[in-house]
Amino acid sequence: xxxxxxxxxxxxxxxxxxxxxxxxxxxxxxxxxxxxxxxxxxxxxxxxxxxxxxxxxxxxxxxxxxxxxxxxxxxxxxxxxxxxxxxxxxxxxxxxxxxxxxxxxxxxxxxxxxxxxxxxxxxxxxxxxxxxxxxxxxxxxxxxxxxxxxxxxxxxxxxxxxxxxxxxxxxxxxxxxxxxxxxxxxxxxxxxxxxxxxxxxxxxxxxxxxxxxxxxxxxxxxxxxxxxxxxxxxxxxxxxxxxxxxxxxxxxxxxxxxxxxxxxxxxxxxxxxxxxxxxxxxxxxxxxxxxxxxxxxxxxxxxxxxxxxxxxxxxxxxxxxxxxxxxxxxxxxxxxxxxxxxxxxxxxxxxxxxxxxxxxxxxxxxxxxxxxxxxxxxxxxxxxxxxxxxxxxxxxxxxxxxxxxxxxxxxxxxxxxxxxxxxxxxxxxxxxxxxxxxxxxxxxxxxxxxxxxxxxxxxxxxxxxxxxxxxxxxxxxxxxxxxxxxxxxxxxxxxxxxxxxxxxxxxxxxxxxxxxxxxxxxxxxxxxxxxxxxxxxxxxxxxxxxxxxxxxxxxxxxxxxxxxxxxxxxxxxxxxxxxxxxxxxxxxxxxxxxxxxxxxxxxxxxxxxxxxxxxxxxxxxxxxxxxxxxx
Amino acid sequence: xxxxxxxxxxxxxxxxxxxxxxxxxxxxxxxxxxxxxxxxxxxxxxxxxxxxxxxxxxxxxxxxxxxxxxxxxxxxxxxxxxxxxxxxxxxxxxxxxxxxxxxxxxxxxxxxxxxxxxxxxxxxxxxxxxxxxxxxxxxxxxxxxxxxxxxxxxxxxxxxxxxxxxxxxxxxxxxxxxxxxxxxxxxxxxxxxxxxxxxxxxxxxxxxxxxxxxxxxxxxxxxxxxxxxxxxxxxxxxxxxxxxxxxxxxxxxxxxxxxxxxxxxxxxxxxxxxxxxxxxxxxxxxxxxxxxxxxxxxxxxxxxxxxxxxxxxxxxxxxxxxxxxxxx
Lengths: 631, 328
Fold this sequence. Notes:
The complex is a heterodimer. Chain A is an alpha+beta fold. Chain A is built from 14 helices and 23 strands. Chain A has four domains: 17-177, Beta-Lactamase, CATH 3.30.450; 185-277, 2-Layer Sandwich (Beta-Lactamase), CATH 3.30.450; 283-357, HAMP domain in histidine kinase (Helicase, Ruva Protein, domain 3, Orthogonal Bundle), CATH 1.10.8.500; 394-615, PPM-type phosphatase domain (Phosphatase 2c, domain 1, 4-Layer Sandwich), CATH 3.60.40. In chain A, strands 1, 2, 3, 4, 5, 6 and 7 form a seven-stranded antiparallel beta sheet that branches. In chain A, helix 1 (2-53) runs antiparallel to helix 8 (279-325) and helix 5 (216-223) runs antiparallel to helix 6 (226-236). Chain A starts with a helix and ends in a 16-residue tail after the last strand. Residues 620-631 of chain A have low confidence and may be disordered. Chain B is α/β, with parallel strands linked by helices. Chain B has two domains: 23-109 and 209-327, 3-Layer(aba) Sandwich (D-Maltodextrin-Binding Protein, domain 2), CATH 3.40.190.10; 112-204, Periplasmic binding protein-like II (D-Maltodextrin-Binding Protein, domain 2). Helix content of chain B is 45%, strand content 16%. Chain B has helices spanning 2-24, 42-49, 52-55, 71-76, 87-95, 142-150, 165-168, 182-187, 217-222, 224-243, 245-258, 265-279, 293-305, 315-318, 322-327; strands at residues 27-32, 58-62, 82-86, 100-104, 112-117, 132-135, 156-159, 174-178, 196-200, 211-216. In chain B, the strands form two sheets. In chain B, strands 2-1-3-10-4 form a five-stranded mixed beta sheet. In chain B, helix 6 (142-150) links the parallel strand 6 (132-135) and strand 7 (156-159). The longest helix of chain B is centred in the N-terminal third of the chain and has 23 residues, at 2-24. Chain B starts with a helix and ends with a helix. Chain A binds chain B through residues 114, 118-121, 124-125, 127-129, 133, 135-136, 143, 198-200, 212-218, 221-222, 229, 232-233, 236, and chain B through 68, 132, 158-161, 163, 165-166, 168-172, 187-190, 192, 260, 262-267.
């Protein structure tokens, strides 16, 4: 497409140039012809002017006419032809004629019975038209094959105020120079010029047999070429144009420029053979196509080479990636030969491989250490669990109470704890607590707290005192400002009386046999381990036979479901109420199932610890009401 | 093959002396057409070149006609045995006492016409009123003048030369033309047929059949068979010319070249085609060469009207048709 566009475009340019060239060429030749013709016209015109304005004798006239021929070498012959009896009343004809013959000027008187010049074109046409006329070109009388044309100028005389036609002045000129001008036109190899007369007769043409014997219309008739006839008509009408034309000589398609010779009404045309002026562009187009093909092939080779230099390392990298993907990071990567994008990619890839290798190594190490920590945590968990009493029922020989506890750490090692132990034969101490934070530090703090409580409870009876003591102990050496909430109580197994102290812990629920579930009413003191001299108070409550005390950590009421709702105290109360009368173990597991059901796979965020103590024995009054207030 | 070759040799051996014997008995005769060699006379040149005259026992001498060699003069002075003349010329000569006879009216139709340019606003005969009309001399003026009279036209007659340049350059409004000649010249000078108004005289009741074969009464009486043979061979020549146009044109152009006359094949082809139209018009049933009494009377009448003849010569003695005698 590019080539055909190129060809078409160049062709248009060339045709335009040819038109301009043709126009210039034809106009310059036409001007040359015009100049010669118009200078020739001057002579008979001046003579006619003289004849109109001056009076003359026959001798003067003849002398003048001879001089005209003598002094104007381009004039072959000249006559002054008078109308019948106009010059001399006695003679029908008067037409002195001087002409060149063998280098001399010869004189004849024209006009005879066989040469009635009044009825000849050179006389009759300018007379009838009342204006000077060039005749159609003709061959000279002598049959010398000299191409001639006659310029005839009518002249008049004022007779009684009327302009009367007197006769005709002529100048016969040879048109050999014209033939030379036109036949000298050579365009490319076979282009040529030709001239047609006013009647369309071919005056000059490369085909000799057509000259003066055929008109352009005759040629059109022979060739059945209506277009040629139309061109001919335009030519003789005095138009100019640049038209496609089939050469009369070679039948080749040509472009033809034609323009009129105004003074004579002839038309000059020059033919430009299309294949010849298009030859250069065709050659150029061929070269362009060859260059295009060569260039394209070179480009293909270059592209292939470039593509290989890019694709090969990429392929190697793809292979290396597969190997790397299988886990082998020790494979050797191809070396970057260049510093281009591929080279940079290779470098980046190499760096990535290195980083990956390092990372995997680090990851392996981290994993190992993590596994170690995890195993240690597991051990810590085991240890933590082991310090919590987990044998139920813990006192199988005691029937007056029942105790059950459950702990579910949020992480392997939690901060919640519980404990129960008999201080003496009739007093059961029970503790539930929650250490701030989680993990190993929390569990260690928990262990310390639990141990302190157990140690303290052994020598003191009132839970308030226990917590006060434990608080003081914990505060000292609590560098990391940890603390714990603790609920501590002591059950008199004989009476069901419970002394208790609360160090910031969730108040336990008292579950009565009449299905009343209520919070323990006692004071909720400060969390344990933050204020050295805090004194915790001991409160008291009485459990009837069958009543139970349900203790829990905030992991129970603050368990959340997917809608971020809390399990809440209310839900807990309701659940426990529904479980009233059941064995302690079933109550705990019932609440646990309810929490699992509620939280519905939402990750447990805090330790969940529950403990229940049920009094079953006879109520026996050991302490007076006064004794139980404050110590 | 061999047998055929032998028989051909035999035929040639037998035939050659026969042809020679025939030539020995050929009668000498001469013929002049009324103008320069051109397709107007194609039939005679073809008959000559194709040996039709010899076939009919004539050893013919073809004389060259032309403007300075009038065929009528050659005929009357006995310089030619046969000549072509216009019917009007023939009647005028006969009426003036020349003992010439028409042996065959070859052309049945008048080719003379008037042509005008539509651009000069001439579309019907009446439009010619007051216009400049180019006319040739003598017999070429008879029909136009009858035409002007018929349509009551007052025109300005301008003598017309042999060229049509005066008309082409608008020196005259109307020009005389022969259909087979000047009309085509005008077309081939760049004027289209639709730009021209043509007045064919035969379409205006003024059909003057033109070229016919003439001889002297005396020549005919001396050897009627020779005259009849000439006419017969000539008509054969025409028929051959019409059926072999390209060969005919070759012959005509050869004659023109021989006479040093510019020869243009295209133009001659046109002329030959028009000759066919004029010699064998499509609506004409009678054989080539018959002079219709009506045509004769029309021409004679116009000549008398114009004072060109005093008495109309007798048709029977003017026109001698050889075939008629044969038919009898």
